[in-house]
Design brief:
CATH topology of the largest domain: RNA Polymerase Alpha Subunit, Chain A, domain 2
Number of strands: 22
CATH architecture of the largest domain: Beta Complex
Structural class: mainly beta
Number of domains: 3
Order of helices and strands: HEEEHEEEEEEEHEEEEEEEHEEEEE
CATH class of the largest domain: Mainly Beta
Helix content: 10-25%
Length: about 300
Amino acid sequence: MKRLRPLQHIGLKLLALGLGVLLWMVVSGEATVERVLRVPLELQRFPAGLELQTEAPSNVDVRVRGGSGTLSRLSPADIVAVVDLNGARAGQRLFHVTPNQVRVPFGVEIVQINPSTVALMFEKSATKPVRVVPAYDGKPAPGFIVGRVTSLPETVEIVGPESSVKRAAAALTEPISVAGAREAVRGTVSVGVLDSTLRLKASGTVVVTVQIVPAPFERIVRGLPVRWRNLSPNLLLQFVPSTVDVNVRGTREGLNRIGVDDVSAFVDVTGLGVGEYSLPVHAESARPEAGVFQIEPSKVQVRIASDKN
């Protein structure tokens, strides 16, 4: 029979006793208080093949009790409430949040949890492809309109509760800007669904292409006088011919509002001195609803002379 030796390791035993007494004195010297904390709620062991049909609460209110010093150092991050979903089935299910399911530091007691019961609605998980509806914003350059708008890929696969998946018809993209564009605009943008219970199965981006085409209506402003810009001092200028015809395109409403004074034709003679030149004619529309597409003739003969002769 093994003989008991009560004095064996007496030093370690006395040290443990002293620490215990000291801890008791510290704790007993503090006032016991209560405090309510809003703490995160974690869902663990989510059942395969099921989806939450409604949003689960992300937090619960927990009333805790402990020494004033201990609770003063406590933060919501120190406590976590856990709900075990293992074994859940389709339909509405109730889960109790008990003190045993709340992780707290030593010296802290759980007094109350609100809500103490969490109701969750489960549905079977489903997937299906939906078409992507690309979006754009802004207006193209005057005289141009938006043509065909496409995305690559044209469809994305969504995942979520069966009833939500059945209702979903399309996924939306972030808008791509076509402001001032005269040619096709292409860019990679995010895509998603507005229903928070749904998610994309794969990548969350698509490539959107917006075709920019000439407006369908046109009008010719005939006999528009040619002006000049940036002529140096003490010089004279003459055009041959002195007028041009300008073709403008735009919407029907925009072209009906445009007048002769809304279109200007000019030649830029920056840095040119005395002599004869063949220069291109430029034209501008003062109205954003219409843009210049063609000038006839596209060039004029310019004669520059000194005004001292």
